[in-house]
Design a protein that fits this description.
The complex is a heterodimer of chains A (199) and B (166). Chain A is mostly helical and 199 residues long. Chain A is 63% helix and 11% strand. Chain A has a three-stranded antiparallel sheet with strand order 1-2-3. In chain A, a hairpin with a 2-residue loop joins strand 1 and strand 2 (58-66). In chain B, strand 2 (57-60) and strand 3 form a beta hairpin. In chain B, helix 1 (2-19) runs antiparallel to helix 3 (76-88), helix 3 packs antiparallel against helix 4 and helix 3 (76-88) runs parallel beside helix 5. With 166 residues, chain B is mainly alpha-helical. In chain B, strands 1-2-3 form a three-stranded antiparallel sheet, with helices on one face. Chains A and B meet through helix 1, helix 4, helix 6 and helix 7 of A and helix 1, helix 3, helix 5 and helix 6 of B.
């Protein structure tokens, strides 16, 4: 490993605990922010009202499914709940912050920091929405209900696993690296190139 | 840079679509996950005779505490992210091949450390296990993939470095 890369890695590892702590301490605010951001989108796209409840970093959504859609049929409805942990989707933010401060050279990159976090929050909201959708589809499928009830979406085991893998597992932390590289192309190139000089 | 980014995202999409195919999950990802459980169990038994492997679970025979290694815990996703980054870069196939083999090996070594650390962390404190498992280790594994990619880029010929991302 080269001295430039080692320095960057050590600085990032030094900053990480600080930002993980800050990020963990703000979990309730993050959950409130995400619940507020998702409310209009869910209201527009779901066929029923979906009330949400925030507890710590966990968002719980209640989905009222008409009983006539089930195999047993009948009157009324039943309430299915989907729980989503906001921190799983935002765990790239402390990594992004640590990498940004580790690639600091001449001035504090306030706009890049804010811009990057804004992109990651936008992704977080999108990922939470997609997760709510595929979890709801999985619930409907398990109960033997035609999933087309939810926005006409079909159920597909492969698509469900693909959505879970990409949105909940891979992208939360991978996007932090991608956004960092996008906001620091010159620094990235200098780290990667054996001959590049500071400009 | 734009061309590289597009190629990278397209490759990433294709590789994840293939990885999540049911047949690949059962015969390749599942088998790899089981291999990792056996390997980490065998490594731990060198210094801790209480550890036993039951299926894909690592279990303490005295306390009954166990951690289960599942798809998503096997480092395959980080390996795919690294492989896509290397494949998308304009370089020779030999260098790409070597970069992917050594890179995936390095990711899997760190993943073994992750599995073993999570087992002992869980024995000590369940809440800390959840924090480390769900939030901290995914970031560290991705950081590892980034560092491997940077080292690989650095190892490229000077001519290559000017043709790529800069």
């Amino acid at each position: 490993m080269t001295p430039k890369i080692s320095r960057f890695l050590l600085k990032t590892l030094a900053w990480l605990p600080v930002f993980y702590l800050l990020w963990y301490l703000t979990r309730e605010s993050q959950a409130m922010l995400m619940a507020a951001a998702l409310k209009p989108l869910i209201g527009l796209t779901f066929p029923v009202d979906v009330p949400s409840l925030e507890r710590g970093s966990v968002l719980t959504y209640g989905i009222e499914v008409p009983a006539r859609l089930t195999a047993q049929g009948g009157e009324g409805s039943f309430l299915g709940t989907i729980t989503l942990d906001v921190l799983i989707y935002s765990c790239g933010i402390p990594l992004f912050m640590a990498m940004m401060l580790s690639s600091l050279e001449y001035r504090w990159p306030w706009w890049s920091l804010l811009g990057g976090v804004a992109w990651l929050l936008l992704f977080e909201a999108a990922a939470l929405y997609v997760s709510l959708c595929y979890n709801t589809l999985n619930m409907l499928h398990t109960l033997g209900i035609d999933t087309h009830w939810l926005m006409g979406l079909p159920w597909n085991a492969h698509l469900s696993l693909f959505a879970q893998t990409t949105f909940a597992l891979v992208f939360p932390s991978a996007l932090a690296v991608i956004v960092w590289a996008a906001f620091n192309p010159a620094y990235f190139s200098r780290l990667a190139s054996p001959h590049a000089k500071r400009v | 840079m734009k061309r590289y980014a597009w190629t990278y995202f397209i490759l990433l999409g294709i590789l994840f679509a293939v990885e999540t195919l049911p047949s690949i999950q059962v015969f390749t990802v599942g088998a790899w996950t089981q291999f990792l459980a056996d390997l980490s169990g065998n490594l731990m038994q060198i210094f801790d005779s209480r550890v036993v492997v039951e299926g894909s679970n690592l279990k303490n025979r005295e306390t009954g505490f166990a951690v289960s290694i599942k798809a998503g815990c096997n480092g395959v996703e980080a390996a795919i992210i690294l492989a896509a980054a290397i494949l998308a870069y304009p370089s020779g196939w030999a260098k790409k091949g070597l970069g992917m083999i050594l890179g995936v090996l390095a990711i899997q070594c760190l993943n073994l450390l992750r599995i073993i650390s999570l087992y002992y962390l869980g024995e000590w404190n369940q809440a800390l296990l959840n924090v480390a498992h769900l939030y901290v280790w995914p970031g560290l594994i991705i950081l590892d993939a980034l560092i491997i990619f940077l080292v690989w880029l650095h190892w490229q010929k000077p001519a290559d470095s000017s043709a790529g991302l800069a």
